[in-house]
Input
Amino acid sequence: MKNKRQAGFSLMELLVAMMIMAVLATIGIRKYQEFSANARYIKAHDTVKTVSEGLDMYYLKHGKYPDFTSFESMVDANSPLVKENNIPVNVSPADPWGNPFEGKSGKGGYVISCAGDPSGSADRPAFTAEPGKNTGPSGAAPTGPEKEPAK
Output
């Protein structure tokens, strides 16, 4: 009688393969979470940038900034920024983490701010936008040339 070897994998081979897959899955999930958090941060920056550019366009047309007491009133469907097509209709008053953007404007200028990533990541800090200044995320989305302050 010949000694036939049974075809298949040993328990040790299966455990090694499962460990390799688990390590790769862990690395992949962490990278996915990191990219997802960066995408949320860039989305928040783009929203603030869109509204600040809308305010700047309003200023160029009327010679003053509109009076708003909150960011929500800036992006409301009845806002002059929306009615004059300076910003899109569907801008969310909340950042991608669900926290409200802060903002106000008056004849002399505006301030719009985002609290940043609530997990406290140093890579995604709070930022603000003001006329002539934009302290957005470094390396996230290009902010273009710095604007001259309104006089």
Q: What stands out?
A: Strands lie at 102-106, 109-114, 127-130, 133-134. The chain is about 40% helix and 10% strand.
